[in-house]
Design goal:
mainly alpha, Arc Repressor Mutant, subunit A, 2 domains, two-stranded antiparallel sheet, two-stranded antiparallel ribbon, 4 strands
Length: about 270
């Protein structure tokens, strides 16, 4: 992913209770500067708040110290404090900014949405081209030799199609999960088997990336600030066949009294 050019920081950032705790420390200016630099670096990484190089190599204390022009001891002290204050987390040995979504601008979310729409469009065009190719390969003279060759060709074509589809779907699935994480401040993994299964199934049903974003927007408006319902802002609830279509077509509601017990049996 390309880097984010700017992040959202409110003017009252230093009025936060966590910064109140930092303000009482002797080295508060160093720690405050380390936090701002962490936020900016997370924007450059553009990996949903994770501090990684090329989405693969995690930043270490030594690497951060070099990047921030600080001592390793100062960086380590700041990181420990940030973890204690729940400002950062360590996930799979990778530092991640907690609640990264609140530092993202609406423009960034719109860019993520548009990027996903374009990938979905290209994926559907490729699937149509592959389907047309398979049809042409079957339009042959019906002698035995030709039938055998056609069967082999179709088998190879289907195999290649599934491989191409899997590659393209990974990009679409990743964009959908990134959009969900940015809207909710959560950290779902796009590689999770159940998540991939639900999204792939809905794509096969003919739904688009934009449809996924609308479902996410609708339910975030209804559930994001409701502690009881917020936990259901997850792929296994949002993207199941029994929920997706109704969520897509409903008008968002700020307050909801929906019954959640039914989900225990049909989230598949």
């Amino acid at each position: 992913m390309s880097e984010v050019k700017w992040i959202k920081i409110t003017t009252d950032i230093f009025d936060d209770e966590k910064f109140d705790a930092i303000s009482s420390l002797a080295d508060k200016q160093m720690i405050q500067l380390a936090w701002i630099k962490l936020l900016c670096l997370a924007g450059k990484c553009n990996d949903n708040g994770f501090l990684t190089i090329s989405n693969e190599i995690p930043y270490t204390n030594e690497m951060l110290a070099s990047r921030f022009n600080m001592s390793v001891g100062d960086v380590q002290r700041a990181l420990v404090l940030f973890q204690e204050l729940h400002m950062i987390e360590v996930v799979d040995n990778v530092y991640m900014i907690s609640n990264w979504a609140k530092y993202q601008s609406v423009d960034d979310l719109d860019k993520i949405r548009e990027k996903g729409k374009e990938r979905t469009r290209r994926w559907r065009e490729k699937q149509k081209a592959l389907a047309d190719k398979r049809k042409d390969e079957c339009d042959v003279t019906r002698d035995v030799t030709r039938d055998v060759n056609c069967s082999i060709s179709i088998s190879n074509s289907i195999s290649n199609s599934l491989e191409d589809k899997d590659i393209d779907n990974k990009q679409v699935i990743q964009d959908i999960v990134v959009y969900l994480n940015n809207k909710t401040g959560k950290k779902f993994k796009w590689q999770t088997e159940s998540t991939r299964k639900h999204i792939n199934a809905r794509l096969e049903d003919g739904y688009t990336y934009e449809d996924f974003c609308k479902v996410i927007d609708n339910k975030c408006e209804a559930w994001l600030n409701d502690p009881r319902m917020n936990t259901y802002l997850r792929p296994d609830t949002l993207f199941t066949p029994s929920h997706f279509e109704s969520y897509l077509n409903e008008k968002p509601q700020i307050n909801t009294n929906e019954v959640v017990e039914e989900w225990a049996n049909d989230e598949s």
